[in-house]
Structure formats: C-alpha cells, structure tokens
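If you are new to this repository, start here. Below is one unmodified record pulled from the training split, so you can see the exact layout before writing a loader.
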Amino acid sequence: MDIYVGNGLVDMYCKCGSVNTALEVFFSMNRKDTVSWTSIISGLAVNGVHDNALQLFSQMLEHCKPTHGTFIGVLLACAHSGLVDKGLEYFDSMEKHHGLVPEMKQYGCVVDLLCRSGNLNRAFEFINLMPMAADVVLWRMLLSACKLHGNGVLAKIAANKLLQLDLDNGGNYVLSSSIYATAERWDDAMKIRQLMNDGAVQSPLRMEFN
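And here is the target side for that same chain:
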C-alpha cells in the first residue's frame, strides 16, 4: 500500500470513529512514517482508546522521531484517562529527550490535563510559568474548569484575564456572569452584565436570535 494512501485512510477511519479499521490499515502498511504514527496515535486518543495510543507511542519511539503533533495526541490521551503525572512526564520529555520546544498547543494540552483532573491551582501556576503569554483558549479552559469545580477565587482571575484579552466576545461575559451567579455572588454577576451592556457587546443568545 502506498504510504500516502495508507496515512489518508488511517486519518479518515479515525475521524469516522472506525478505530478497528484504522488499526487494520495501519498494521497492514509495509512502510510507516512519522505521519502514520501520529495519525493513529491522535486518532486513538480522540476516540477514547487511550491505553493503545500510549502503547503505540512507545513503539513509535523505536522507529522514528515524534513531532509536536504526536505529543498533542499523547497528552490528549493522558488528559482523558486521568494520567496527570504521566502526561507531565511526556511534556517534559519533549525538549529534554526529543529536542522539541513546546508550543502553545502543547501547553494548552497540559492545562487541559490539569483542569480535567481538578488540579486548578497547578493549572494556574503552570500558566504563570509559561515562557509565553497564555492565549484566550487557555484562560477560557481554566475558567470553565473553575465553574465545574466551584473555585471562585481562580474564576475571578481567569475571568478578568479573558475580558482583557477578548473584550468583544460576549461568550466570555456570559460565562463569567454564570460562574458568579452559581456561587451566589450576585453583585459580581451584575457587574459583568453591566460591563457587557456598557460595551454594547451582544451575548451569544442575543446574536442567535437577531
């Protein structure tokens, strides 16, 4: 089988949720490159087959070098299976063992890993120690986790960061207000609503019906 056709089929079957067929195609390929391994590892991680994804990553290291994309799949598998320490080990190994300087997407995967496991303080510390400024995706991730786990202190910090970075996004205001309302901090919730009104920012619901 042509390697490019094989890679395309593995990617297609994974995106369709046909994991077994994707694995059959992958193992039937006589030659595999980094794209082949990354496609199957990421595809398994997305479809919830986390153990197999990590096993294949170990096998991959015997044949070729991983890429930034490979580590997204590996970290995603760790995040969805609750393997916090293992995920952090993989993240640290990127630069230490593979010469890959982590980018925003890999940092985001680690924040997701920590948030999913309820380690919000560690996620906040991790964001503050990043060599680049966190983007709105990371702050929104932390804010959503604060809502889920009821952490009002960090929620306020994340909400303020979001409003600074993405002032015109009505979804940020609605999410922040909802978190304060859930915590029965009605004054703060009203302040957020007032900020949205003062800035003439439409909420997602209003935009949907306009």
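Two things worth knowing about this chain: Residues 200-210 have pLDDT under 50 and may be disordered. DSSP finds 13 helices and no strands in the chain.
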